[in-house]
Each structure stands twice: as C-alpha cells, then as structure tokens.
Amino acid sequence: MHTRTLGRSGLVVSPLCLGAMTFGEADERSFMHGVGCDERTSHAIMSRALDAGCNFWDTADIYGQDGLSERIVGSWFAETGRRDEVVLATKFRFTMPYGKGASRRHILRACEESLKRLRTDAIDLYQIHMQDLDVPEEETLRALDDLVHQGKVRYIGASNYAAWRLMDSLWTSETHGLARFISLQMQYNLVERNLEWELIPACKRFGLGVIPWSPLAGGFLSGKYRRDQPPPEGSRLARWHNHRAKAETERGWAVIDALVQVADELHSTPARVALAWLLRKECVTSVIFGARTLAQVDDNLAAAALQLDDDQQRRLDEVSALPLMYPYDFIARIQGRW
Predict the structure, then answer these.
(1) Annotated catalytic residue: which of 63, 155, 161, 225?
(2) Catalytic annotation on 63?
(3) 4-335: what fold?
(4) Per the confidence metrics, is the pTM higher than 0.85?
C-alpha cells in the first residue's frame, strides 16, 4: 500500500486508516453496545490490517466505554511488540469518569490516561474530538503545545470543528507560536458533503490533511441497503434511526443506484467504490474504515488499489452534489464558480 503525507507535516500514513471504534464488546452503557467485536477478533483485525500496509490507526478514549477500545489496542501492542510500526491517533473531549471538555485540566489528565491504556509513551496524532464552546481556543492549544514539547504527543489534530473555529485555532497557533493542527477529521461521504462549502477550502489554503470518518455513512453505502427494503437485521442502521432518516432520501437512493452501477462496471463492491471516491477528493489524506470481521477488513483494504476513471468520479460527484445555497449560488452566478 502506498503512503501519503498528512497535511503540511512530515507524518507519513497509509491512505486507509483503521478505525477502532468497534473494538471491544461494550455493555448497555455504551452507544456501541451490540455492534462491536471481541478482543480476539479485534487483535486479528489489527494484525491483518498492518500486514497489508495499513499503518494508520484511529481510536478515542470514549470508544466502547471507559477507554475500552484504547485498552484493546494497547493489549495488542503489548502482545505483538509492533507499536513502532503504527501511526497511532486517538482523541479526547467527551465525557469520561474523570471529566470532559477541552480545558487544560482535562486535556492533561486525558492524555495521561490514554497513554496508560494504550501502553505507549507517545501518541502520534492527538485530536480534539469536537470543539468546546465553553473553553477559549488558546487554553486548549497551550495545553496541547505543552504535551508536544513534553514528547507525549507528536502532532495535534481537530475533529468536528466549524470553519470559523478552525480558522480561529490556526490564527491563535500562528500568532502565539503554538503547535498547530495538521489534520481535520470530519464526517465525509457521498451523502454527507457539507464540509466542502468552507472546511475543504480552509484545509487546502492552510495545509491540513482531511481524515474522513463514516465514509460508508454508517453502512448505508456498503451495498446492503436497497430502496423499499428494511435494513438488514443486526446492522447499525437498523438501530440508529436518526442516521437512517438522514440517508434514506431520494438523493440518498440515487447515490446508491449510481454507486452500484459503478461497482458493477469495475467488478468491485459499493463499499470499495465509496472509499475510492473519497480517496480522490481534494485534501483527503487517509479515509477511516471500521471492521468487525476479517472479511470486512479485506474488502475495505482493497479500495486502496481501486481506480475510478474521471467519468465514474464525475457521475458520483453529480448524483451526490448538494444544491448551492447563499452566498455560494450568488457567487457562482457572477463568477461561474464558488
């Protein structure tokens, strides 16, 4: 598998990123209850992915519950001794037993706890899971900058940020000489393209690598879902009704139709095509995929070698395009582009 540089940094990662959200069998307290895989399967998935060249892994303290996913990743490191082969990313921000948010107090504690669970002395990419409107961005960045200087964190990134807050963050880093975000992790797929309005242009201008999460829209783009048919029993969308409502629109079903058509042309699967489409998008460095079985790992990894031609990419772009809103429609009428 070839590699890419993450944003305007020196961090080299694989174009596919193994998402660890499904690692561990969470109990009923967790939103991941009933949709994860056991520790043995998780270990097998990590080994298969790394052996195939997928060296970039993403987790978070909140995944599972009380650090379950991080603990399983850490146990794999301890068992195999292959920590140095992995570019390890994790996240902080949401509620843990010892606190929440992006305050200095919570960040320093959260990092220490993640390092213990992951059984490592440094995190390669430490990401804020969502902006915190109650904490000044400078406080968050100074705490992260201290972790970088201490060697506990090598690079920092953002996730689920509004464009104005991302720009405020980059400006604060620049003017105060603090570590800056090198990446932005956002939901991005054929049915969720809103970040193209402001965030993608900002990432292009300031050199941030985009790391899409939910590239299959919670499984909607996997090929398992069809018009006028109930979702497969046991699937995430069978339980997550709000996600289904967002995807199951006329536009969403048109995307499915086009996706299946392109997959047939390439003798591939809709899931691989959806991932390959993202890998051609501007600023995208690495696409996060999740897996609960080895078969899912193999299917997703094959997307790294799948090449869509310009016509196939254009057709998927057009069928999934969002209607222009103000001021973009106004700008486009005047200048022919936005």
Answers:
(1) 63
(2) yes
(3) TIM Barrel (3.20.20)
(4) yes
